[in-house]
Amino acid sequence: MYTPEEIVETYEMLSLQHLNIRTITVGINLLGCLDKDPNRLKRNIYTKVVETALRLNKAVKEVEAKYGVEIVNKRIAVTPIAILLEPFAEESDASKIGLELATALDNAAEDGGIDYIGGYSALVHKGFTKGDLTLIQSISEVLSSTNRVCSCVNIASTRTGINVDAALKMGEVIKKTSELTADRKGVGCAKLVTFANAPEDNPFMPGAYHGLGEPEVSVNVGISGPAVIRAIVEKNQDLDLRQLADLVKRTAFKVTRVGELLGREVAKLMDVQFSTVDLSLAPTPKQGESIANILEAMGLERCGAPGTTAALMLLTDAVKKGGSMATTFVGGLSGAFIPVSEDAGMVEAVRAGALNLEKLEAMTAVCSAGLDMIAVPGDTPAETLAGIILDEAAICVSNDKPGGVRIIPVPHAKAGEYVDFGGLLGSTVVMEVSRFRSDRFVRRGGQIPAPIHSFRG
Amino acid sequence: MPDERAVVTVIGADKVGIVAAISKVLAENNVNILDLTSSKVRDFFVMIMLIDISNSRVSLEKLKELLGAEAAKIGVQVAVQHENIFRYMHRV
Fold first, then answer.
1. Touching check for B40 and chain A: CB below 8 Å?
2. How far does A67 lie from chain B, in Å, by closest CA?
3. CATH of the domain at A210
């Protein structure tokens, strides 16, 4: 039997602290859909996605009822679409075919009851194939004309270094996406991330895709829980940081166990392999669901104050330690997310002048997702965006960690203005970007070589 | 069928008949009570039951609904969750 304390703790976490599963993301291999006829390819993709989506929805409903735990998002990740575009890459209407495949994915997600579908992706960390170039060329149009399709382009890895040409291309793609969705404050960019060391089993959007090392179908889980962690940090003001780290670790264990349990059950009901739990703490704009507020509960006046990077390192590490013990396989990004607009505490810190782009960049060195959901002035040049991407990629490549840049140049907006993207994407303050130019550096192009980490073979 | 267990948590203002009302619903649906603890925390009555649902006449979801309706009648809150979630969270 369980002690009343244990029962009440679980009850509190689930009902008062909104502990839920942020996402169950099913990865599916689309290579079996390949066909020389684009129409047949589209049909194959649509059918496969809808069929998986319906099975996922049925399983999720059953598991939610059994445990009384909400599974907030149901998502699908597919084989990078750049690969499926290879056979058409030399045709004059190749980009159009890309757009048609994206539309098929979008329709399938909608008809199958899926929140987001990831994998309009290319992996270009060492160079471009023809399919990659076709895909990158079509991203802006895809993101402005579909609702649920997400795109991620991996431009760097610890093994290969950083593809600078790709960083510049992505700077341009971000600008164009913002312009094409200007009527919605450039929100198309919220579905686009430029990655370094992109994991193949990431359950979180927009970075999710089904990597080539993955099985036919995989189930990956993204947990939640900032409110649970914040509550215990707040309650325990007298603990020193060693004791606090231990407490966070123990709590992260419990949070992750819920993800492991529900993920396993969903996979079992779908009769597919359960893959990984992503240990990331993911905030939402809801009151209390903020990473910034956890750091503040640790004793910082505002997120961004000196000591913030250290506090975030403690938090991320404790979550990883507790989480690793709780799940058989750890996957995805696994750390803490610091998406500005999706975290009310972060927005507040920016508004108060406590948090700027440079401090956020420093923070990304010790957590996982990178520079996420950052609004910048609409007139930020593509080369400056590329410079920001290169800096983030350098941090990730040097630290051998995943991370990306999801940045939104808000058309016509100036630094300090308030923008509301709506729903889960939240609202934020447009951040100031350095006015000093990076053009000549970025336009040199080429590849920044991989760093030496040691002389191991 | 292997043991399928769930945890029933009842919280509310203390009054006559809470245990009777909840156990009546369980008995009617062939659900066995394996363990029961109750205590009064300040003015609240807190009862925790471990139940065996492997021979239950209704699904866990339906049982939850029936208990919820009964609890509403006597003015208490009830939560029903499969035991696995407690085992996963609190046992290494």
1. no
2. 5
3. 3.20.70.20
pTM: 0.92
CATH number for the domain that contains residue B21? 3.30.70.260
pLDDT digit string, tens, across residues A304-325: 999 999 999 999 999 999 999 9
Q: Which residues contact A214 (CB under 8 A, 6 or more apart)?
A: A27, A29, A200, A201, A275
Close Cβ partners of A324 (under 8 Å, ≥ 6 residues apart)? A279, A330
Min CA distance, A224 vs chain B (Å)?
A: 15
| Domains contained in chain B, number | 1
- Number of domain units in chain A: 1
Number of residues in chain B: 92
Q: Please tell me the distance from the alpha carbon of residue A443 to that of residue A94, in angstroms, as a whole number.
A: 27
> Cβ–Cβ of B90/A10 closer than 8 Å?
yes
Percent of chain A residues topping a pLDDT of 90: 86
Instruction: Answer whether residue A455 is part of any domain.
Output: no
- Answer yes or no: is A244 within a domain: yes
Q: What is the pLDDT of residues A75-90, one digit of tens each?
A: 999 999 999 999 999 9
A67:B80 CB<8 A: no
Quick: pLDDT tens for A225-242. 899 999 999 999 999 999
Per-residue confidence (pLDDT) for residue B15, from 0 to 100: 86
CB atoms within 10 A of CB A350: 28
